[in-house]
């Protein structure tokens, strides 16, 4: 009987609404991966396996206490940096980029871990500070953001570099960064932007940016993929063409349809109705994280929930803006929906930590009630 009580204790005080929303988005993803791969059951089965593994990891992480998260934050960041160094030195190169580590039975992208390790460490480190950010704390935080970002940039992976950097900068901002430093930072970025454009970007990256400014400059070259994506989104109408009926994806006009451009598949085949459902689920999930930040009982938990709400919002905005022709194509998947095991599992770890805030808050409320009634 004791083992049963311990088993049930894992599922006590879980955030059922968050679990429901994530499961709904993941189910949406399974359906769209099936359609984006023209009914390939193998891709669908692997996506289902990714979802099952991710949800299992999420439930485990939801039971980890704050103290353990704080003690593991720095080792996790150091381990992630080690993996990024290994990727630069020994990684698998594909399409001109070295972004994967091959373990023999599978391969994964350590850069996905960086999007998780950087904000978790900063939430743990800055969450323990009671006062405003001091210069030593700011320098340590800056190094924690800069090192992983630089290692991702040399792969090269500009899109993930931006997301890793933003995930850290958002936490620093929420921790109480002064507006004077923010303004100085913006000025510094504006000054350095021309140098980065000239010496820090590859030719294909500059071409992608220029294509956004003038999409008709190379419609059969650099602008081809985005143009096909916009055709898919616009042709879906209100109700869409139906699953496996989208001409852009089924006739192979869309690149990476099951990963980066899966939103275009969804818009074409499910139309405005399907997009509305998707955005509603995203909005509810983001709103839930912000609400959890308001009920959290310590600074680290507040930072974690609020920062992840902003970070997740950026993931959605970047992907949708990218496939809609509003932002350069930077290879960012649609969170929880696109095919990709590393990305899905790291997101589930994040949501497990956020759910842990809810669980610990409920546990503290129950303890307070028991002490009062007792």
Description of the structure:
The structure is a single chain. A three-stranded antiparallel sheet has the order 1-2-3, covered by helices on one side. The chain starts with a helix and ends with a helix. The chain has one domain. Strand 1 and strand 2 form a beta hairpin. It is 72% helix and 3% strand. Helix 12 runs parallel beside helix 14. The model has no long low-confidence stretch (mean pLDDT 82). It has 14 helices and three strands. It is mainly α and 374 residues long.
Give a short summary of the structure.
By secondary structure, this protein is an all-alpha fold. Helix content is 72%, strand content 3%. It has one domain (15-364).
List keywords for this structure.
three-stranded antiparallel sheet; mainly alpha; 374 residues; transmembrane
Number of continuous helical runs? 14
The biggest beta sheet reads: 3 strands, antiparallel
Radius of gyration, taken over Cα atoms and rounded to an integer in Å: 21 Å
Order of helices and strands: HHHHEEEHHHHHHHHHH
The quaternary structure here is single chain
Average pLDDT reading: 82
Level of helix content?
A: over 70%
Strand order, sheet with most strands: 1-2-3
Shape: globular
- Low-confidence segments, ≥5 residues, pLDDT <50? none
Family: Belongs to the SEDS family. MrdB/RodA subfamily.
Subcellular location: Cell inner membrane; Membrane
Keywords: Cell inner membrane, Cell membrane, Cell shape, Cell wall biogenesis/degradation, Glycosyltransferase, Membrane, Peptidoglycan synthesis, Transferase, Transmembrane, Transmembrane helix
GO molecular function: lipid-linked peptidoglycan transporter activity; peptidoglycan glycosyltransferase activity
């Amino acid at each position: 009987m004791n083992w049963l009580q311990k088993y049930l204790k894992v599922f006590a005080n879980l955030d059922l609404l968050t679990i429901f929303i994530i499961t709904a988005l993941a189910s949406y993803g399974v359906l769209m991966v099936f359609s984006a791969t023209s009914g390939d059951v193998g891709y669908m089965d692997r996506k289902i396996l990714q979802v099952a593994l991710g949800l299992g990891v999420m439930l485990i992480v939801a039971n980890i206490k704050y103290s353990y998260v704080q003690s593991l934050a720095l080792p996790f960041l150091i381990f992630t940096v080690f993996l990024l160094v290994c990727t630069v030195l020994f990684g698998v190169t594909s399409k001109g980029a070295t972004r994967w580590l091959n373990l023999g039975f599978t391969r994964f992208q350590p850069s996905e871990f960086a999007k998780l390790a950087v904000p978790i460490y900063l939430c743990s480190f800055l969450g323990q500070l009671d006062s405003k950010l001091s210069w030593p704390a700011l320098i340590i935080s800056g190094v924690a953001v800069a090192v992983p970002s630089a290692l991702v940039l040399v792969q090269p992976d500009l899109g993930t570099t931006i997301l890793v950097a933003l995930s850290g900068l958002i936490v620093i901002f929420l921790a109480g960064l002064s507006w004077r430093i923010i303004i100085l930072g913006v000025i510094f970025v504006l000054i350095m932007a021309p140098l980065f454009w000239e010496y820090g970007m590859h030719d294909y990256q500059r071409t992608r940016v220029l294509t956004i400014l003038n999409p008709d400059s190379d419609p059969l070259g650099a602008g081809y993929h985005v143009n096909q994506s916009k055709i898919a989104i616009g042709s879906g109408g209100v109700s869409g063409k139906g699953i496996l009926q989208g001409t852009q994806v089924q006739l192979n006009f869309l690149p990476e349809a099951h990963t980066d451009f899966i939103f275009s598949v969804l818009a074409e085949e499910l139309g405005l109705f399907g997009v509305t459902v998707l955005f509603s689920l995203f909005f509810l999930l983001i709103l839930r994280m912000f609400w959890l930040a308001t009920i959290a009982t310590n600074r680290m938990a507040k930072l974690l929930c609020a920062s992840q709400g902003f970070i997740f919002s950026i993931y959605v905005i970047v992907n949708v803006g990218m496939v809609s022709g509003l932002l350069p194509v930077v290879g960012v998947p649609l969170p929880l929906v696109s095919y990709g095991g590393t990305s899905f599992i790291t997101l589930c770890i994040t949501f497990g930590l956020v759910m842990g805030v809810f669980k610990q808050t409920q546990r503290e409320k129950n303890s307070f009630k028991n002490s009062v009634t007792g």
